[in-house]
Amino acid sequence: MIGKVRGHAIRLTRTIVNQDDVFVVLGDTICEYNIQKCGQPFLHDWCKKVDDPRDFGVAEIGEDGFISRVVEKPQIPKSNMALVGVYKIKETEQMFQCLESNIREGLRSHGEFSLTDALDCMIKMGSKFKSFKVENWFDCGRKETLLESNATLLKKFGATADPNEFENTVIVQPVSIGGGCNIKNSIIGPNVTIGENSIIDSSILKDSIIGSFSNLYDIVLDDSVIGSDTNLRGESRSLNIGDNTSIDLG
Q1: 235 lies in which domain range?
Q2: How far are the Cα atoms of 4, 7, 248 from residue 58, in angstroms, in the given order?
Q3: Average pLDDT of every residue of the chain
Q4: Which residue, of 104, 138, 172, is where some domain finishes?
Q5: How many angstroms separate the Cα of 55 from the Cα of each of 84, 125, 132, 199, 235?
Q6: Are 130 and 19 in contact (CB under 8 A)?
Q7: Within-domain flag for 161
Q8: Which one of 55, 130, 142, 219 is at 20 to 30 Å from 198 when CA atoms are compared?
Q9: 90 vs 125, higher pLDDT
Q10: What distance in Å separates the CA atoms of residue 107 and residue 100, rounded to the nearest whole number?
């Protein structure tokens, strides 16, 4: 729901933020950057060059390094600099004014009130945004990119699974397993993250993310995202399942 109500969600913070400087960080993005290099006094948009920017907000950057325009998911991008979902805002009152104006006038991009449109409104009103290029960006907005990011982060930061901890189970690193898990008679990995207190029996999992308090029995999963508190039994699948789900595939 964050993507569909992003402008509304930020507008709700108006009474809390007041005139303070703020960071806006979207929940589906992970970045690596040196915050000390983000200097004053300008506003900043975190950016990353991508091969196909049509699925992202896009920043058009002038020769002076300032952003001249931002556009949400343009069909014909004039730049390959994607907005990664991290923003430093100093002129917060102007941001809220632009959000209010866009919502009042029904200005939507791709069916939603977009923060990108509010930022573009600020630029047109004279706000000066500097582009701030991130070192690494792990996009978690779609199943495919979430799994790719999970694999990259597991390789980068190492595994937390002890292969001797679980009964009759083979761990193919890198794998991260939360505390309190009961796993037996299974093959786990590579590139698998399992949340805490999950039960897995007689299963094969690879390239997948399993939420906490899940119960998997006699199943083969590949390239799957399974939410928390989920029960799955039987057969092989590539799945994308939300929280609090019970499915018998037998």
Answers
A1: 145-248
A2: 18, 17, 43
A3: 83
A4: 138
A5: 11, 26, 20, 36, 34
A6: no
A7: yes
A8: 142
A9: 125
A10: 10
- Range from 73-87, 172-186, 201-215 carrying the lowest mean pLDDT: 73-87
Has residue 218 been placed in a domain? yes
CA atoms of 73 and 201, how far apart (whole Å):
43
Whether 131 and 149 share a structural domain: no
Binned at pLDDT 50, 70 and 90, residue 237 comes out as low
As beta bridge partners, residue 109 has 112
Categorize the per-residue pLDDT at 5 as very low, low, confident or very high, splitting at 50, 70 and 90.
Answer: very low
Signed CA dihedral, 126, 131, 132, 137: sign only: positive
* SS3 letters across the chain: CCCCCHHHHHHCCHHHHCCCCEEEECCCEEEECCHHHCCCCCEEEEEEECCCHHHCEEEEECCCCEEEEEEECCCCCCCCEEEEEEEEECCHHHHHHHHHHHHHCCCCECCECCHHHHHHHHHHCCCCEEEEECCEEEECCCHHHHHHHHHHHHHHHCCCCCCCCCECCEECCCEEECCCCEEECCEECCCEEECCCCEEECCEEEEEEECCCCEEECCEEEEEEECCCCEEECCEECCEECCCCEEECC
Same domain, 38 and 94: yes
Domain count, the chain: 2
Supply the CATH number for residue 93's domain: 3.90.550.10
